[in-house]
Amino acid sequence: MDLKEKYTEQAIWDMIAQIPDPEIPVITIEELGVLRKVEVLTDKVVVTITPTYTGCPAMKMFEDDILKTLHDNGIDNAAIKMVYTPSWTTDWMSEAAMQKLKDYGIAPPVKGTQDKGVLFGSGPKEVQCPQCGSKNTELKSQFGSTACKALYQCKDCLEPFDYFKCI
Amino acid sequence: MREVGRAKMTQQDALINYCLRLGDSSLILGQRMAEWCSNGPTLEEDIALTNVSLDLFGQARTMLTYAANIEGKGKTEDDLAYRRSEREYYNTLLSERPNGHFGDTIARNFLHDAFLYHLYTALKNSKDETIAAHAAKSIKEIAYHLRHTGEWVVRLGDGTEESHQKIQQSFDDLWMFTGDLFEMNEVDEILIKAGIAVDLNEVKKNWNSTVNEVLQRATLERPKDDYMQTGRLKGMHSEYLGHLLTEMQYLQRTYPDATW
Predict the structure, then answer these.
(1) pTM for the full model?
(2) Chain A: residue whose CA lies nearest to B63
(3) How far, in Å, CA of A160 to CA of A124, rounded?
(4) Spatial distance between the Cα atoms of B182 and B194, rounded to a whole number of angstroms
(5) What's the complex ipTM?
């Protein structure tokens, strides 16, 4: 069977674009910017993805979920290609995805704030509490519950919260 | 890899060795950081230390996978991580130093983070696409590591009398392993000529300025360059690496090819 006759690249893209992030199920691999490219060859489908962080354990899950979704749609001959360039950045995240993060209780990345000075650079100036909206918040730790998040606390409502950090 | 001097080293041999150096240093330091899991001084710090471990494992994986691919003998990154003995490891001597107390770990990692930060900054322009991409990717993660350890060095150095004295001792004890970071041999010579590797003397200048800046801010004294331990370019390590590998490789050594 010639896969090229049966599927367009867009069709494959649409088939897998809605796969959610296993850790943050409100955003998809498309919104996250992990899904980079789809190629349909005569005998196989090649999906190119890029990791958020090199050691992110969710990457294996993304691979498995993509292959499973393709398999469920009758495509068994598929390969995942991992690329590191251009390296993933939170700047690829759409406004809609950022809003979804916020609604889910995670403060979205404040764009363009990545390491001004690597050492002793202050963190993002204004991280808004996703619970009460206050900007009176404090960085507790640059490292949070997953590689991509930092831990903050709101000084008004006192709730601790995750901040999706900029890279 | 062929022994230096026995036969002419090819660029491919050199590249494999170079990838092992990068991959092994991240792997071994990552394993050290994993030892902190559930032992951190505070919950936040425990999470931070293990987050760093995860990043380092990811970086190690990229380089070991690449080394295995170049070698072309059907090995995987896991074979390289779990089936080599200590003499076949090329990690920095600093990365295998034991964790000690929290200040020891912070001092060791700070010196190493600053090294990787400046090394990867330079390697972003490597003519080897995989290494350049790896450097560009990793540096974003290492920037967070360096900021984390740099801030702690200042907090401990410019903290109480006891914390100051303790971390000064940590730097004094670790200093003799910093010379090894910048050692080069035939591998570097071949790869620098090919535009793949970078001159570590240049990296050292930047490393010096970062280290000096932070130590000064931390009211700590930079130890004098005295005797420097050497050997890792030949796979010679301290007694600590064997013990670390024993634990890390236990499962694959005991039950080869086990999967779960």
Answers:
(1) 0.91
(2) A54
(3) 17
(4) 19
(5) 0.83
